[in-house]
């Protein structure tokens, strides 16, 4: 089931908020992506940045489950949201 880009951006914002509030995981995100705390504030409306937040969370099932539990969302929501943001389209090789 697809998701609108606007809905995906809302999920991305929720993910960013969850990540920013996670004192253990936020430094890992900043180190892995090269983003700064200023980027978190300045790029809050950047769909590509929100996609990178979702990409990061999708790297670990425990992070996906933690975010979804905190946000009250089904476990497949971050993946569906990521597919609806820039760079998240599925590649068809045939």
Set out the fold topology:
Layout: H1 5-20, H2 26-33, H3 37-42, H4 47-57, H5 61-71, H6 77-83
Helix pairs in contact: 1-4, 1-6, 4-6
Report on the structure:
By secondary structure, the protein is mostly helical. It has one domain. It contains 6 helices and no strands. It has helices spanning 5-20, 26-33, 37-42, 47-57, 61-71, 77-83. It is globular and about 35 Å long. It starts with a helix and ends in an 11-residue tail after the last helix. The mean pLDDT is 91.
Q: In a nutshell, what does this entry contain?
A:
By secondary structure, the protein is mainly alpha-helical.
Which key features would you list for this structure?
single chain; 94 residues; mainly alpha
What would the average pLDDT be, to the nearest integer? 91
Count of separate structural domains: 1
Distance between the termini: 22 Å
Sheet-strand content, in percent, reads under 5%
| Shape descriptor | globular
In total, the number of strands is 0
Name the structural class.
mainly alpha
* Low-confidence runs: none
């Amino acid at each position: 089931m697809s998701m609108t880009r606007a809905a995906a951006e809302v999920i991305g914002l929720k993910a960013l908020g969850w990540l920013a509030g996670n004192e253990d995981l936020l430094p890992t995100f900043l180190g892995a992506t090269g983003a700064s705390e200023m980027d978190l504030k300045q790029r809050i409306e950047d769909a590509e940045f929100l996609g990178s937040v979702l990409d990061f969370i999708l790297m670990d099932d425990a992070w996906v489950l933690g975010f979804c539990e905190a946000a009250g969302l089904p476990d497949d929501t971050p993946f569906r949201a990521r597919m609806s943001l820039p760079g998240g389209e599925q590649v068809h090789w045939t």
